[in-house]
Amino acid sequence: MPSNPPSVIAIDGPAASGKSTLGLRLANALGYLFFDTGVMYRAITWLALQRGINVRDEAAVTALAEKAQIDVAPASKSDGRACDVLVDGQDITWEIRRRKVESNVSIVSAYHGVRSALSQQQRRIGQRGHIVMVGRDIGTVILPEADLKIYLDASAEQRARRRYDEIIARGKQADYNEILAKVIERDSIDSTRDVAPLKAAEDAVVLDSDKLDADEVFERALALCR
Ligand code: CDP
User: Fold this and answer.
1) How far is the CA of 2 from the centre of ligand 1 (A)?
2) What pLDDT, in 10s, does the model give residues 96-139?
3) Which residue has the least CA distance to atom 3 on ligand 1?
4) Is the pLDDT of residue 1 over 80?
5) Which of 58, 117, 137, 139 has the most beta carbons within 10 angstroms of its beta carbon?
6) Does ligand 1 have an atom closer than 6 angstroms to the CB of 137?
């Protein structure tokens, strides 16, 4: 039987399903650490692009993941960030949200060596407990012993609409159809890869955020913790 409130909470789901929004709110409500594992895959992708490494060069990207020093720290600015993301000391919090990173991250995250380098760090942090950890494989691979697993789903159209609204809210330009195509492409790579594919754990509670707004999703998730 899961402990209440659950100490280790895993939230998985496809791109832009609202995992980070839910995870952050839940972590704040419970006084837990919020850890979005997607930022680590994004950071390695950014680093490869920055260094002119071909993201299709698995050996080179894996070597990078094994050496890179990724740090996630409490937000140092109130500019909409959930936390600071640092690579080798450099603040790349917004860099990793760029289109170029978004287009390449699923290629990088499918590499066995990259996942094994990052998974070890994720597991170590997760096992400390009092944590809400968000990703694609948290409930299935990283922390299969998690006390509560939530799989947050929504249609591709709804998710693309949310991602579009987020970008517009940051004062940037966005093209809805392009975002929708990218979301579908990323989901397809994430769910068909050999290693740790995106899927709901058998014991996950599935929440469909097409039918629930952000507050309702949060209330349902909080109810599962009580
Ligand atoms: O925010 P969004 O849902 O769009 O993406 P994210 O959570 O930042 O993750 C970016 C990418 O990293 C995903 O499309 C996956 O390819 C990869 N990822 C992963 O493979 N495993 C995780 N635990 C987290 C992210």
Assistant:
1) 26
2) 999 899 999 999 999 999 999 999 999 999 999 999 999 999 99
3) 15
4) no
5) 139
6) yes
The pTM of the full predicted model, rounded to 2 decimals, is: 0.93
Distance CA 172, CA 164 (A): 10
End-to-end, the C-alpha distance of the chain in Å comes to 13
Q: pLDDT, tens digit, for every residue of 37-50? A: 999 999 999 999 99
Residue type, 123: R
Cis previous bond, 5, omega within 30: yes
Instruction: Confirm or reject: Cβ of 182 under 6 Å from ligand 1.
Output: no
Of ligand 1's listed atoms, the one at least distance from the Cα of 187 is 14
pLDDT reading at 177 higher than 70: yes
Nearest-CA residue for atom 6 of ligand 1: 38
Kindly indicate the confidence band of residue 4, based on its pLDDT and cuts at 50, 70 and 90.
confident
| Closest approach atom of ligand 1 to CA 186 | 14
Residue whose CB lies within 8 A of the most ligand 1 atoms, among 34, 95, 97, 105, for a mutation test:
105
